[in-house]
Design brief:
This protein is an alpha+beta fold and about 500 residues long. It contains 19 helices and 16 strands.
């Protein structure tokens, strides 16, 4: 053995001792393609227990292990990392998936780099493959990518080193209409995700610093030249050893459309409110302070708009009594609205008008308000009172009052199509309907008692219950109420029932 060969062997043994305990895998290959040595880490990364399990040569290694790139393309002969280092090629960070022969799925992911050790004459003496197990790292990346792609929230990932987008999820494609090919590889200057943002310069500074980009509203460019209102934010992340920025988006377009629709709706309401021929007012639900009134309200009440806006109904004494006002306000707070409430509206000069009031809570500018609508029924009430008085005067002598005359008086109050009748509107018992039918014929309590074989007190009690259920207060009103609803008579018993 020559002194040179002995010296080389000693140096290689020392080298092997140094690298034996490294966590990185190290494989030494002789220039004749013989696999000379591998440390424990390299054997473990191939599921091997001894050097022979790797194969004696590079050719045998290729027969025992199948390698493919991360894009699933298989490595051909001559392109394995061992082949390349034997050819004297230096490379770094070659990522390959490794499977034992006969297996369809890879078991490991290796990150490989090469090293060539030359002798004193500069000739290759020892070829080195340095292998890092990237299996856990790649599995973590795959899990992240699955979650990233499945996340419905639109998102992009930008690489910090060149500010180009390297990932895009389906949520972003659906929101914008871009294709994946139109996004990947573009720079943040080409597709400006912070376009139009008030804090765009801050966002650019944070991006260059690899720091969190705060939430900001931006106008995201779309494929057809339009823009979409979004909220964008950036979060620094690492993918492998690369610094990246994860941009996430919230679509504000539905909000913008809703706000536009709301503005249009409020404009239409304002026009309708102003032009409505009936008095209307808008007040706050909290405190019932008047926000606005229309022209018909001012004409009806005699107030000027500056005299009522900002004041409450209590301050301007809008109703004849405080009890009336409190009752309506309480109904609004408890139920949110009411229809056809009869009340007396008090005008600026102190006079009153009979009104039907309807109110409903509405939202204006994000605040809950109350819309009141008034219908003046003063003329109708006067006509009704005159009719009731006329009927009561006629009832003073009912002997001559025919059924046809009674019907005509009722029809004068509320004309209807022939045969049309209003619903009963009250939960009357059969006996109460009989009593009411006889009242509508003009009979007094004594006559009704005889016909129905009842005492006068019993008839009187029936009459009081009828008044309570129908809301009337006098006999004339009861007659009109009955006639309007088709309760115009009763068939009394043929004879008095026998006592048993």
């Amino acid at each position: 053995m020559s002194p040179r060969s002995s010296g080389q062997r000693i140096e290689r043994q020392q080298l092997q001792q140094i690298i034996a305990g490294l966590t990185e895998g190290v494989i030494l290959i002789d220039p004749d393609q013989t696999i000379a040595w591998a440390n424990t880490a390299a054997l473990s990364m191939h599921g091997a227990r001894e050097l022979a399990d790797l194969g004696r040569t590079v050719d045998e290694y290729r027969e025992r292990f199948q390698l493919r790139y991360r894009n699933h393309h298989a490595l051909d002969d001559g392109t394995y990392p061992a082949d390349r280092v034997v050819a004297g090629e230096l490379f770094t960070d070659v990522m390959v998936e490794v499977a034992r022969h006969g297996e369809t799925e890879p078991e490991w992911v290796h990150r490989v780099r090469s090293l060539v050790l030359n002798d004193a004459n500069g000739d290759p003496d020892c070829l080195v493959l340095i292998v890092t197990d990237a299996t856990d790292e790649m599995q973590a990346i795959e899990r992240f990518e699955r979650a990233f792609n499945a996340n419905p929230a639109p998102a992009l990932i930008c690489r910090i080193s060149d500010l180009r987008f390297i990932r895009v999820n389906q949520g972003f494609l659906d929101m914008t209409g871009y294709t994946r090919q139109a996004i990947i590889g573009r720079s943040v200057y080409d597709l400006d995700v912070m376009s139009g943002a008030d804090r765009r310069e801050l966002g650019k500074a944070r991006l260059s610093e690899w720091a969190t980009v705060p939430q900001m509203e931006a106008s995201l460019p779309l494929p057809e030249g339009e823009t979409k209102l979004v909220i964008v934010a950036g979060q620094p992340i690492e993918i492998g050893d690369e610094r990246c920025m994860l941009f996430t988006f919230a679509d504000l377009e539905p909000r913008r459309k809703a706000e536009s629709a709301l503005r249009n709706s409020e404009e239409k309401f304002a026009k309708t409110f102003r032009l409505a021929p009936v008095p209307m007012k808008v007040s706050t639900l909290d405190g019932f302070r008047i926000v606005d009134v229309n022209e018909a309200f001012l004409k009806e009440t005699g107030w000027a708009i500056e005299e009522v806006v900002g004041r409450s109904a209590a301050e301007i004494e809008l109703w004849d009594t405080a009890t009336t006002r409190r009752r309506m306000e309480s109904e609004l707070v408890e139920t949110g609205g009411f229809r056809g409430y009869e009340a007396k509206l008090k005008k600026k000069d102190g006079s009153t008008a009979d009104c039907l009031v309807s109110a409903e809570t509405i939202r204006i500018g994000g605040e809950t308000c109350v819309l009141d609508v008034f219908q003046d029924i003063t003329a109708r009430k006067t006509s009704e009172l005159e009719l009731v008085r006329a009927i009561e005067e006629a009832l003073a002598d009912t002997s001559w009052l025919s059924r046809s005359v009674m019907e005509k008086l009722a029809d004068m109050r509320s004309p209807q199509r022939e045969g049309a009748r209003k619903p009963s509107g009250a939960d009357l018992t059969e006996k109460e309907r009989q009593v009411l039918g006889l009242i509508s014929q003009g009979l007094d309590d004594g006559e009704i008692a005889k016909l129905l074989f009842l005492s006068r007190n019993t008839v009187r009690n029936h009459v009081q219950r009828i008044y309570a259920k129908t809301g009337v207060h006098r006999r004339g009103e009861a007659i009109v109420w009955a006639r309007e609803r088709g309760i115009v008579g009763s068939q009394p018993p043929a004879k008095r029932p026998k006592k048993t």
